[in-house]
Amino acid sequence: MCVRTCSPGYVLDRMKRACVPCHESCDRCMGATRDQCLSCKDSQDSLQGSVCKKSCGDGMYRNPETSRCESCHPLCKTCSGGGKEACTSCVEGLSYSLSQCLSSCGEDEYRNNGQCYMCDRGCKTCKGATSKDCLSCNDNRKLFNFTCVKNCPPGMYERDSNGIPECERCHPSCATCTRAGPDACTSCRMDLYLEGTNCVQQCSINHILDEDTKKCKLCNSDCPTFANITDRSALPHKNDESNAPTKLENHFILISMATCLSLLAIFALLGLCKSRSTNGYTKVDNNSASSVETQQTFDNNVPSVYIRDDNAESEAMLNDPDDQEM
């Protein structure tokens, strides 16, 4: 049958001088191949160039009025419209926030896979979605282990870190403190005492321990002494070990004590020997002592001879003839 125009779904093949069917995806076409469509048979398909597709590719969106794929804004990787506020994802290097592609996320947002998400409401800035991902805090709260707290926990103090209030740990000797360092304590751990702003094991000179407050108080002239105190806890404790004897001094003290004890023992033995040198003997002249048991001693550098007298209860001393001549 000869016709002036081909029916819908057909196109004129001039070589054959006949109407041939369009590609099955095309409703109207300018040729028989799939890339020669003028409109799509399926109303849900989109015409991209001259090809009917189920969806438009990256950087394009389906215009519902024309059923054609059109280009997104240059900042958008994918979009729902042609403006920059219609982005659904962004090109590399940009962050997606509230349908826009930005060079960075908002202050109260964090970036994940190229998109910006809202922080937890307690966080001013954050690195994730939870309350344990905060980088700074709202409502004058302090940052502690990426969590915003009203007050710093015990053993920590508040410090300013580039305008961000954070909780930092006190020195290990402090239970509470005002800043870093061992000289900023306001209270001490259980085994230490507070002296000024330092925590010590024992109170220093001119200080006395208050057992109730666990503080070393300055006592000056009214410090207790060893003579009038029975409670040793009230004695001033020395925190300075510089007066303690050294190991060499301890050895010297021990050697000195041993020497003194040895000398005392020698003197005691000499005294015993001297007392026994005359006990039970009678002094006689040298000539009469030849046939008896004798003992010669020197009294006041004068030679004397004693004879054993077992029956005598005391010593009888006879003058030496040489003494009489003198």
What topology does this entry show?
Elements: E1 10-13, E2 18-21, E3 26-29, E4 37-40, E5 46-48, E6 51-53, E7 60-63, E8 68-71, E9 76-79, E10 87-90, E11 95-97, E12 100-102, E13 109-112, E14 115-118, E15 123-126, E16 134-137, E17 142-144, E18 147-149, E19 156-161, E20 164-169, E21 174-177, E22 185-188, E23 193-195, E24 198-200, E25 207-210, E26 215-218, H1 247-276, E27 281-284, E28 294-299, E29 302-308, H2 321-325
Antiparallel strand pairs: 1-2, 3-4, 5-6, 7-8, 9-10, 11-12, 13-14, 15-16, 17-18, 19-20, 21-22, 23-24, 25-26, 27-29, 28-29
Top keywords for this entry?
two-stranded antiparallel sheet; disordered C terminus; 326 residues; single chain; 29 strands; Hormone Receptor, Insulin-like Growth Factor Receptor 1, Chain A domain 2
Into which percent range does the helicity of residues fall? Answer: 10-25%
Distance between the termini: 190 Å
Percent range for β-strand residues: 35-45%
CATH architecture assignment of the domain at 1-54:
Ribbon
Question: Could you state the oligomeric state of the chains shown?
Answer: single chain
CATH superfamily of the domain at 1-54: Hormone Receptor, Insulin-like Growth Factor Receptor 1, Chain A, domain 2
The CATH class designation of the domain at 1-54 is Mainly Beta
Largest β-sheet summary = 3 strands, antiparallel
Please tally the β strands and state the result. Answer: 29
SS content category: mainly beta
Can you count the helices? 2
Strand order of the largest sheet: 27-29-28
Low-confidence parts: 226-244, 277-326
Q: Any idea what the shape is?
A: rod-shaped
What fold name stands as the CATH topology of the domain at 1-54?
Hormone Receptor, Insulin-like Growth Factor Receptor 1, Chain A domain 2
Mean pLDDT: 77
Question: Cα-atom Rg, whole angstroms?
Answer: 57 Å
